Amino acid sequence: MSTFMAPEVFDDAVRAYCTRYPASVISGGRTRKHTIAVGGFAGDPHEAWFAVDVQYDEVPDYDEAHAFGLTLGLKVLREGHANGDHLQPVDWLND
Ligand SMILES: [Zn+2]
Predict the structure, then answer these.
(1) Within 10 Å of residue 84's Cβ, how many Cβ atoms?
(2) Residues 6+ apart with CB under 8 A from 51
(3) Is residue 40 a part of any domain in this protein?
(4) 70 CA from centroid of ligand 1 (Å)
(5) 10-24, pLDDT tens digit by residue?
(6) Residue 64 CA, ligand 1 centroid: distance in Å
(7) 18 in a structural domain
(8) Which tens digit of pLDDT belongs to each residue from 13-63?
(9) Distance 31 CA to ligand 1 centre (A)
(10) What is the distance in A from the centroid of ligand 1 to the CA of 71?
(11) Residue 6: domain span
(12) Is 73 within a domain?
């Protein structure tokens, strides 16, 4: 599990993203036990504190949100969270 992004750069990107849309972080860094309990996998980016799930005040168009995320170095994944998305570094690799 790895990224070239520094933790503080990820945090600043999340802050900028959540200011743009606006959105609240509803899940962030997780323990392995909690990660697996909520359907993740060992070594997923939440466990490394390189992922957040956000809940929007108003859900934006996905293509627009995805494009804006890329300008910040974020990959925006719409995974079916209620009114929200998952954000992680665009270069995140599971290994
Ligand atoms: Zn997530």
Answers:
(1) 20
(2) 28, 44, 45, 86, 87, 88, 92
(3) yes
(4) 17
(5) 999 999 999 999 999
(6) 19
(7) yes
(8) 999 999 999 999 999 999 999 999 988 888 889 999 999 999 999 999 999
(9) 13
(10) 19
(11) 1-52
(12) no
